Amino acid sequence: MANFEEQFEDLENRLSDGFATGLKKAIKQPKPVSPAADEFIIGLAQKKLRRPSRFRIIRWAVPAASAAAAILLVAILNNQPKQALQPALVKETRVAGFAREDIDRNGQVNILDAMKLAKGLKQEQKINKEWDINNDGQVDGKDVDVVAYSAVRLDKGVM
Amino acid sequence: MKPFLTLITMFAMFFGPAPAEVPQADVNLEESVRFMPLDVFIDSSSNELAAYQFELKTVAGKVKIVGVEGGDSDAFKEPGYYDPAALANDRIIIGAFNTGDDLPLGKTRVARIHLQVIGETEPAFEISLAVAADKNENQIKAEISFVKGEQK
Amino acid sequence: MERSDESLIDAINKGDSEAFEKLYHRYRDWVYRLAWRFTGDENKAQDVLQETFVYVLSKVPNLHLTAKMTTFLYPAVKHISFRITEKTTHIPLEETDDEPACNIDMKVLDGQSDIGAVLAALPAKQQEVILLRYVDDFSVEEIAESLGVPAGTVKSRLNSALKRLREEPRTKKYFFE
């Protein structure tokens, strides 16, 4: 055993429990996690993970425009093989053609899509509601970030 | 634009990098470990470079990516966007853009990737430029290259 | 009887969102407090918390645990925290212990605490292993796995840190002679 390893074991044996207690007390406690934060994560999980229940179907039974957006979002978020999707979902995705992040509609999602969106915001161009990639009701820099991160995902490698 | 992660950018992470690999120490205690920077250059010739995206892949040796820095020019001094899953991996895709007017010409260092090299095998890499564009989002011809930094 | 993490993850990979909810609540507070340590800001810590679990979700249905859940989560929380606070995104090249401390935000420490003051003065790498060992109760092997370094390196850093703590008048009282 190396010398420092023996020294470490010796020092740790000499260390009282009061040290760990004191150290934990030395770190202030933050305020509790907000319920909204919990709800957001759990809500995302419920969208992503398969939930074979009527509730899922009912959530899709909404006005057509929101349904199309919801279907696209679920299709994008769902990592299941295509055959795991309901036939209607697959059909909608194919008909839709382009991924939402494909801002320039060239069939690819890359950094230029993020740039196009960023420039559009900077120049205060007419906002396309489809650019609300994260569905927070606004088109802003956060959507640019979402598009950019989509572009550099490792499972979309170019090589 | 600074590629900071916000609450909303989680959707990008949500799209899922490659199948899970729990980060873990796979270092044999007998193997040497050293750190090495790798500088990435893009030569856009007479065109101003406003955006780029490239992929770097390790093809020999045992390497972990441990960090990413920006480049030399003001336009790309901040680290570009990359998938956090690339850290502790040996492959990375980096993309960046700048909507300003102060853009670099010619050969520019756009990123420095910090690598942990494990073992004695000299690492080798492949790099490919997916896209390079000017400020009008027109794709431009550009050459990408890299230089391995000093090994420590 | 409480389900194991492996059992929950297996269920999550099969699409069980309730299993995810259980896993989330099991580790939520630990992730949040860790993020708070790194960021010193409760709102940013909540952002880190959410992004960490989105990262976990992004692995589904191929999420596999080959270490403890905390070992898996630690590097993700650290990386996300550093990015959110726009701290340096690179790890210094030199394997020394002398770089500035960055593992605990000073706002998080109790200014009246002797231990806090001494901890704040430790080099970053020593600070990190001390926190993991004595606050998060990681074993040496778990620390090694989380940091991606050999166990011997962890022991060396802990040894250096404990030596300093024993030499420091404000913390030597915690050592039996």
CATH architecture of the largest domain in chain C: Orthogonal Bundle
Strand content of chain C: under 5%
Low-confidence region ranges of chain C = 88-101
Q: Count of helical segments of chain C?
A: 8
The helical percent of chain A reads 55-70%
CATH superfamily of the largest domain in chain C: RNA polymerase sigma factor, region 2, helix turn helix motif
Q: Percent range for helical residues of chain C?
A: 55-70%
By CATH reckoning, the class of the largest domain in chain C would read Mainly Alpha
Largest β-sheet summary of chain C: none
Number of domains of chain C: 2
Proportion of residues in extended strands of chain A: under 5%
Beginning-to-end CA distance, first to last residue of chain A: 46 Å
Distance between the termini of chain C: 43 Å
Biggest interface pair, residues each?
A: A-C, 40 and 52 residues
The whole-number mean of residue pLDDT values of chain C reads 85
Counting DSSP H or I runs of 4 or more residues, the number of helices of chain A is: 8
What's the mean pLDDT score of chain A?
Answer: 71
Helices and strands of chain C, in order, run as HHHHHHHH
Series of H and E elements of chain A? HHHHHHHH
Radius of gyration based on Cα positions of chain A: 24 Å
Shape descriptor of chain C reads globular
Plain-language structure description:
The complex is a heterotrimer of chains A (159), B (152) and C (177). With 159 residues, chain A is an all-alpha fold. Among the domains of chain A are: 38-96, no CATH class; 111-156, no CATH class. In chain A, 57% of the residues lie in helices and 0% in strands. Chain A is built from 8 helices and no strands. The radius of gyration of chain A is 24 Å and the shape is elongated. Residues 51-96 of chain A have low confidence and may be disordered. Chain B is mainly beta and 152 residues long. Chain B is built from 1 helix and 8 strands. Chain B has a single domain (31-148), classed as Immunoglobulin-like (Sandwich). In chain B, the strands form 2 sheets. In chain B, strands 3-6-1-8 form a 4-stranded antiparallel sheet, with no helix packed on it. Chain C has 2 domains: 5-84, RNA polymerase sigma factor, region 2, helix turn helix motif (Rna Polymerase Sigma Factor, Chain: A, Orthogonal Bundle); 106-172, Winged helix-like DNA-binding domain superfamily/Winged helix DNA-binding domain (Arc Repressor Mutant, subunit A, Orthogonal Bundle), CATH 1.10.10.10. Chain C is built from 8 helices and no strands. In chain C, helix 2 (17-39) packs across helix 3 and helix 3 crosses helix 4 (69-84). Chains in contact: A-B, A-C, B-C. The interface between A and C is large, with 40 and 52 residues.
